[in-house]
Amino acid sequence: MKASAFAPGSIGNVGPGFDVLGLAIGGIGVRVEVELIAGEAPAVVVGGRDADSIPTDPRKNAAAIAAASMLRRMGSGGAVAVRIDCGLPVAGGMGASGASSAAGAFAAALAAGGEAPTSEVILAALDGEAAVAGRHLDNVAPSILGGLVLSRSVDPLDVVALPAVAPWHLALVTPQVRIETRHARSILPESSVRREWVQQMANAVGVSAAFARGDGALLLRALDDVYAEPRRAKLIPRFAEVKRAALEAGALGCSISGSGPTIFAIAPDDAAARNVAAAMQNAFGDIESSAHVGPIDRQGARRVEESAP
Question: pLDDT digits over 160-181, tens only?
Fold first, then answer.
C-alpha cells in the first residue's frame, strides 16, 4: 500500500507563545509519500527546497522516523519507503521538520489503511520532530490540525485548536542565513525574572484572545516576545530594521518565526501582506531573502492524490 500526504509549514511560538503556540501557514509545506514494503527501509528519496540538507538515512530522517512510529502505533509490521518533496527552507524557522514529520505520520496512517486517532498521529510526528529539532509540539501540532494551536502539554499529550476568526494573512521573509534550532535554543536561559515571565504570559494570552476576537489592535499590542526575540535577534542581520519596516507598512504584529531566521508578520488581508513582505525584503538591503505570502492554513495535514502535481 502507498499513500501521499501534505502538511503545511508553521510559525512556532507566534511571538510570545514560546513552545506552546503554533500557526499553520497556507500555501507552503511538505509532501511525503509512504509505501509499505517488506525488508529493510531504503534510503529516503528527497527533492525540492534544500534537498541536499535533508538526511536520506531513514534512521535520521524526520518523515521516515514519524512514518515508522505511526506503523508501530497501528500495529502494522514491515518497513516504509519514503519520498519527500520539501517546499520549506531547512533550518529556516518555518517548521520544515515538523511538517515533514506530520506528513510522514499522516501518510503512513493512510498507507496502512486505517483512520488513526489524531492524538496518535501527533505522537508519531513528535517522534520524528524530536529526532531532529527537539521534543516540542508548536510546529507539529498546527501542521496536523491547521490554524492556531495551543500545545498545553507534551506528556501527557494535550493540544487545543484555538479559534482564528479573522481572514488575516501572513508575510514571511527568510534571509539567506542558517540557524540551527538546537543552537537557537541553547542561547536562551532556563529561567527568567518574574516580571519577564508575567509579561510573556499576558502577551501570549493576548495573542490568543486577539485571534479569537479578530482584534487587530489587541494583536498589535500583544504580539511582543520579551523572552526569546531579544536574545535571538542578534542571530538575524538587520532584524530590528525589518521588524520596524513591517509595522510601518501596516502589519498587525511581527516577530521571529520559530528559531529563525524567517521573520513573520500578520496583516489584515492579502494585499496588505504583500505590501508588508515587500517592505521587509527592502529593509534587508543587500542581504538576499525570499518571501512567502499566504493565508492561515485552516486544514492541516491531508491526503494528496497520487496524480496531483
Answer: 999 999 999 999 999 998 887 7
> Which residue has 487587530 as its cell numbers?
216
pTM above 0.90, yes or no: yes
Give the position of cell 536561559.
Answer: 189
- Residues 268 and 252: beta-carbon distance below 8 Å: yes
pLDDT digits (tens, 9 = 90+) for 242-266: 999 999 999 999 999 999 999 999 9
Measured between alpha carbons, how far is residue 53 from residues 33, 56, 72, 83, 96 in Å?
19, 9, 27, 15, 11
CA nearest to 31, candidates 71, 3, 61: 3
Which residue is it, cell 482564528? 164
Using CA atoms, how far apart are residues 191 and 29, in angstroms rounded to an integer?
A: 33
Positive/negative CA dihedral, 87, 118, 298, 112: positive
Q: How many CA atoms lie within 13 A of 75 on its CB side?
A: 3
Q: Is 100 in contact with 64 (CB distance < 8 Å)?
A: no
